[in-house]
From TrEMBL:
<dbReference type="GO" id="GO:0004520">
    <property type="term" value="F:DNA endonuclease activity"/>
</dbReference>
<dbReference type="InterPro" id="IPR019974">
    <property type="entry name" value="XPG_CS"/>
</dbReference>
<dbReference type="Pfam" id="PF00867">
    <property type="entry name" value="XPG_I"/>
</dbReference>
<dbReference type="GO" id="GO:0003697">
    <property type="term" value="F:single-stranded DNA binding"/>
</dbReference>
<protein>
    <recommendedName>
        <fullName>XPG-I domain-containing protein</fullName>
    </recommendedName>
</protein>
<dbReference type="GO" id="GO:0006281">
    <property type="term" value="P:DNA repair"/>
</dbReference>
<dbReference type="InterPro" id="IPR006086">
    <property type="entry name" value="XPG-I_dom"/>
</dbReference>
<dbReference type="GO" id="GO:0016788">
    <property type="term" value="F:hydrolase activity, acting on ester bonds"/>
</dbReference>
<dbReference type="InterPro" id="IPR029060">
    <property type="entry name" value="PIN-like_dom_sf"/>
</dbReference>
<dbReference type="InterPro" id="IPR036279">
    <property type="entry name" value="5-3_exonuclease_C_sf"/>
</dbReference>
<dbReference type="InterPro" id="IPR006084">
    <property type="entry name" value="XPG/Rad2"/>
</dbReference>
<keyword id="KW-0539">Nucleus</keyword>
<dbReference type="GO" id="GO:0005634">
    <property type="term" value="C:nucleus"/>
</dbReference>
<feature type="domain" description="XPG-I">
    <location>
        <begin position="51"/>
        <end position="122"/>
    </location>
</feature>
Length: 291
């Protein structure tokens, strides 16, 4: 008689009946569902803890960085603590980066273009500028199949093709631009109000969630409450008094020469666009893409 666990036998039977690929897809869906459930539970626990400490918060309708940028624009907060560069696309101005050491998982709107990284993307943006630049870039690649390019353009096109796997004919997706230009946010001008921490509630919460005795809760939590009260009394305080800055991430980032050249091409165009009557000067594509 087999000593293998019943679950193992059932799993092997599923693979034989449905095929490994089907079972793999099913398991991936289950893992994704469990991951989302875990995120939801953590979010609810954090919200409960914020309420107990009397710290106001807002739940963003969609993108968190869009909501944070709106809060800055409304003057409801002094700044945003984030390492997500999307904050700048949403209009964020006062941004504090490199405060936290943890690296979170980043989810983008789309998968992007396979084979095109941020360096090549900067080069593409520096050449095909304006609101319809990406559509022009797509058309330029498609035109290569019809032999409509000069030799310089063909050389540059080949350089991109070496990195590019495929491009969707529907690229660029207008929903991505709309998500940045017209984000769904809560734009209420009502200011936030701090409340006094609920010490009894905090004791109950920590006892239920992490099995702390009241003495340990008081030892760890009372100093935090005193610091919060001090913060409320002070008219101005330095951020690094309450957070340990990750100094290792403050080191100057070494930008590649290709990115610097692409940015240099973008800046004159932006300055020229700001001058009335200025005409756009288009650089030959063969001088743009690094071969």
């Amino acid at each position: 008689m087999s000593t293998r666990p019943k679950e193992h036998v059932e799993f092997a039977s599923r693979i034989q009946e449905q095929g490994a690929s089907v079972v793999e897809a099913d398991l991936a869906a289950q893992v994704s569902q469990l991951y989302e459930q875990r995120r939801k539970e953590h979010r609810e626990l954090n919200q409960e803890l914020l309420q107990l400490f009397g710290i106001p918060y807002i739940v963003a309708p969609t993108e968190a960085e869009a909501q944070c940028a709106t809060l800055v624009q409304l003057g409801l907060v002094d700044g945003v603590v984030t390492d997500d560069s999307d904050i700048f696309l949403f209009g964020g101005t006062a941004v504090y980066r490199h405060v936290f050491q943890s690296h979170r998982h980043v989810d983008d709107y789309t998968d992007g273009i396979p084979g095109i990284g941020r360096v090549t993307a900067m080069e593409v943006l520096s050449e095909w500028q304006g609101p319809h630049g990406l559509a022009a870039f797509r058309d330029w690649l498609i035109a290569a199949e019809q032999g409509a390019h000069t030799q310089a353009e063909i050389d540059a096109e080949n350089a991109i093709r070496r990195r590019l796997i495929s491009i969707d004919p529907a690229f660029p997706d207008p929903r991505v631009a709309a998500a940045y230009t017209s984000p769904n946010v809560d734009d209420s001008p009502e200011s936030f109000q701090r409340e006094l921490p609920d010490l009894d509630g905090i004791r109950w919460y920590m006892s239920r969630k992490v099995d702390w005795e009241q003495a340990k809760v008081d030892e760890r939590v009372l100093p935090i409450i005193r610091r919060l009260n001090e913060f409320k009394k002070e008219s101005q305080a330095q951020l690094d008094r309450y957070f340990r800055i990750d100094s290792e991430r403050l080191k100057t980032t070494q930008t590649s020469s290709r990115v610097r050249k692409a940015v240099a091409r973008l800046m004159p165009a932006a300055n020229a666009a700001a001058r009335p009557g200025a005409k756009k000067q288009r650089t030959r594509i063969g001088q743009i893409i690094q071969l």
